[in-house]
Amino acid sequence: MTTSVSEDDKRRRIRQYFTKLKLKWPSILITIGLLILLAKSAIGLIILIAGGVWFFLEVKPLFDAPGDQTIDAWLIDDIENLKKRSLDRLNIDPSELIRDSIVIRGPILWNTNGVPSKELDWKKGKDGRIRFSINAVTIVHLTEHKLSSYQCDYNFLRNVPLNEQDDEFHYRDVVAVSTRDDTTNYTLPNNTLMKQAQLFKLAVSSGDSINVIVNSADLVKFTGGDIAETGIDNAIKALRKVLSEKKI
């Protein structure tokens, strides 16, 4: 478990983690101040100090920003709380579960219902992996006779699940658990289109399905790093194992 912090402080520090530094203008002001000061004008010192204060205020959030591992641990803690929420919504008692619940996490970096555009953010960690402020979270609970799922768009900055959806399927109705490449039409923050993505898909005989975007070459190119752990490999392995046992 992570070191105990208050909820407000936790969210504040998460926002600091995702803060993008805006140093262009304070750096320009510092340069102008230095040039004027070198010309032996007293006003250069005033400009230099102003630029320095501006620069400090921009970088100050970094002093208390959590590291990559802390961010990962906090997100895992939040997802554990989402597991409890999903069990309540689906009216499942934990004693009914036949194995640990399965979690699949995917990135969101495009316009999403209920999410302010300014909160769609990301950061490349020191390990080269990309973390996202908004995540698509899918939790699958496996009981004796059925598979139940909970999905939401999770705002990590605010600890708020949005666009929640619950589904229940009998094991016999599940026809496929797979990953697939599919065409998409999402606009990234630089106004380029994310045209293709890798999806996790669980399909049932009725035509319904659970879909989660877990990766995209366009997203990787835009962010310049690898997508952080999504849980997809473990999910597919676990689901196929349970389905093979239940369909015998």
Explain how this protein is built:
The protein is an alpha+beta fold and 248 residues long. It folds into two domains: 20-64, no CATH class; 68-246, no CATH class. Helix content is 35%, strand content 31%. It is built from six helices and ten strands, in the order H-H-H-H-E-E-E-E-E-E-E-E-E-H-E-H. The chain has helices spanning 7-18, 24-38, 43-59, 68-89, 217-223, 232-246; strands spanning 102-107, 122-124, 129-132, 134-142, 146-155, 160-170, 174-187, 193-204, 209-215, 226-227. It has a four-stranded antiparallel β-sheet. It has a three-stranded mixed β-sheet with strand order 2-3-10, with no helix packed on it. A three-stranded antiparallel β-sheet has the order 7-8-9. Helix 2 packs antiparallel against helix 3. The longest helix has 22 residues, at 68-89. The radius of gyration is 23 Å and the shape is elongated. The two termini are 39 Å apart. The mean pLDDT is 88. The chain crosses the membrane at residues 28-57. Keywords: Membrane, Transmembrane, Transmembrane helix.
